[in-house]
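Hi U.,

Before I forget, here's the chain from the pilot set. I'm dumping it here mostly so it's searchable later in email.
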Amino acid sequence: MKKITAVIPIRKGSQRVINKNLRPFAGSDLLTIKINNLKKVKGIDDIVVNTDSEDAIEIAINLGVNFHRREDYYASSECTGSDFFEHLGNVTETEIFAYCPVTSPFVKIETMEEAIKDFYNDVNHDCLSTVSVVKEFLWLDGKAVNYDPENAPNSQNLPNIEALNFGFTLVRREDLIKNRNIIGKKPKFTKTTDIESIDIDTPLDFFVAEQIYIKTVLETKGLLD
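Structure:
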């Protein structure tokens, strides 16, 4: 079996939700939750926190996982997505790269394990990534994108547009560096549930995700007083 390294990208300068990766979340924090979940995933050989945050490095050390201290440019707004992905590939010694942002706290351990098995058994695709199905009436530049306004369908009959949610992505390191992207030329998508698809990007996202986490994770496990 090839080595799989789960990389958790953490930038201390998050802009829309200040310090969202490390601020208190349901009695813990998003980074700690992500590390503890990844430790339970069969098939993951190593966990690396890629960060410019000394606080994140301290959490990584305390939880017994590795870290890469990110250079300033790759933590700045000047760094493009392509530059950043290439950087992740260049500094991560592995064969298969797993992209695991903390902003997706609901991706199930079972979902990740099934994705790993699927990726190993598939020779026709160069990456596997989680997606959400979008059933919305979409417009761009004053034009409908996915339906005919003169023959408007019911919402359930709209096409199943798949949106990357980046909850869990697997890609071979060589392809990550070559393509400068975690999404390859022949991607395979696996659909996640509505809750698993939650991505924390705004203050409202953070608030809603915390309430859902308390209800669906902590209360069901009896971890609340």
